[in-house]
User: What shape does this take?
Amino acid sequence: MSASAAAKAQNLIRSRRLPFTRWQRTLKRSVDLVGASILLVLCWPLVLILALRIKLHDGGPAFFRRRVVGPKSEFDAFKLRTMRVDANEMLRRDALLRRRFEVNFKLKDDPRITSVGAKLRSSGLDELPQLWNVLKGEMSLVGPRMITPIELKKYGDAAWIFGEIKPGLTGYWQVSGNQMAGYDRRVAMDLFYAEHWSLLFDLKILIKTPARVLRGSGV
Assistant: This one.
């Protein structure tokens, strides 16, 4: 991150540590409930088809639970499984692969991803089960990128945003084409979203999301 970007990020950290107002939270939650309900009705047949495709590919479970950080507590975010059944074991066995992963908690050309999973990730369709997390109130349609508890330390002073804002099914970082960005850049973008949130900002992100999916950019 450049010196100017770092300074801007620090200013954002200091500028406000206040939660949304009650009215803002109610408005955002209302959009989540309506949007997630409509999308679940429309998408559940597709989710079932994709789940069957995963099951037939290697016989493993179709769904995967990822333990992530939320404002109230940790919770399990649902996804369609895109990795091999022994993905975690592969990471434990391969020290070099593990060190590469721990830099940004992402791997380019990740050898653990299945052929079916690669297609799902490129479209972002593996995230569809998280609509259930949105309905449960654990996630929002738009928000910061969900992170695991071990990743929280990488946010440093900016970790406060995960105590105030629910992780999003999509977000500012994802639609900006920065999926492989380093953690400094991720923190800056999540902070920008937290400090500049508005209903219009969320709607702009939601409008951009289908285009990213159709281009196979992953969201």
